[in-house]
Known about the structure:
Structural class: alpha/beta
Radius of gyration: 23 Å
Number of strands: 16
Strand content: 15-25%
Strand order of the largest sheet: 13-12-11-10-14-15-1-16
Oligomer: single chain
Distance between the termini: 24 Å
Largest sheet: 8 strands, mixed
Helix content: 25-40%
Amino acid sequence: MGILQDLLKDIPVPKMAKVKVKFDDQKIDQLEPVLTEKLQQEHIRTQIKPGMEIAVAVGSRGLDRLVELTAVTVKFLKDLGAKPFIVPSMGSHGGATAEGQREVLAHLGVTEESAGCEIRSSMEVVKIGELPNGLPVYVDKYASEADGIVVINRVKPHTAFRGPVESGIMKMISIGLGKQRGAEACHQLGFKYMAENVPAMAKMIMEKKPFLFGVATVENAFDKVTVVDVLSPEEIIEREADLQAKAKELLPKLFFEQLEVLVIDQIGKNISGDGMDPNITGRYPTPYAHGGPDVNKMVVLGLTPQTEGNANGVGTADFTTQRLVDRMDLEVTYANGLTSTVVAPTKIATTLPNDREAIQAAVKTSNILDFAKVKMVRIKNTLELSEIEVSEALLDYVKQHPNMEVVSELYDLPFDENGNLF
């Protein structure tokens, strides 16, 4: 028996019970009439003149009903005699190539056919100015030549910084429309100043370019559109922060203030840019964001198939498994850190031979006197939180919580002969 096995052999893995978790699931069923009514507001409609060439910025995030949002917006512009075209607005995504960005949109279902207009994809940008701190501000070449600019995006909390405005319309204007150059410039000074730089860049672009309006959505805990709004530049400045607050309220969450151990079965880029959503784990890639439970030790057991070896986020965990490390594509993972400048999440967490020992290591180091009373939660990933597992020590708390319900007896976690969960 090795030294590690010797240290861990008497550490108990707690019995667990299944728990159902309830979240607000209100959503908009008929999106087209709601969006059309917002587009038809007098102060929005009168901005559009016949013959105007209008760039519609569409990004790479998997927004709920993106195809419909895009098609309805394009139709509205065409009905008023304008000539809309789509500009992929996604920073450096799609391998930072024009063709790659067109493919990302097609993958999300946005094509020239589905949108009803042409897509003009280029990585060329025009520098339109500099912030007082010297940061250059860039705009996509096609958008900069248009008679008007419209952006479509969802508003939600960011994972690496906090501010009144995080991910949403202003970020789409500053980083999305700025392509690779804009994304790099904005990340260059790090997330510490992102909360100031994003709105400052967006305001400069809205002042210097014919920015018409933004189509903003807020999604519920199940990633379904629950709010849609159309905002003029003044309204973006006034109201994006309110939409951001609403989005935070609706986020799915773990309803625990403090946990000794959090076990996550899988992380991946298809779950979150950070592998797992820090807003849910309470573990952030930078010191400039906060919120969520206080977790003493976090364990990540595996990667999703869709992440293709990108293990960005494993470094925010304390422990991981040999099977995760064996599936990791170091080059792809490290490239993620070099682009975002945030490299702590691409480090490899303390690695143990199997799931059981990784969990035992977390229990052993969780700074409690009685290991049998460990407060432990296990989740599949940070997107699927409607059913979780909790340890015996949390049952009384769960039973009294209005959003949670215990739905099984206590049981031992099922490890196979190799010590892995199946």
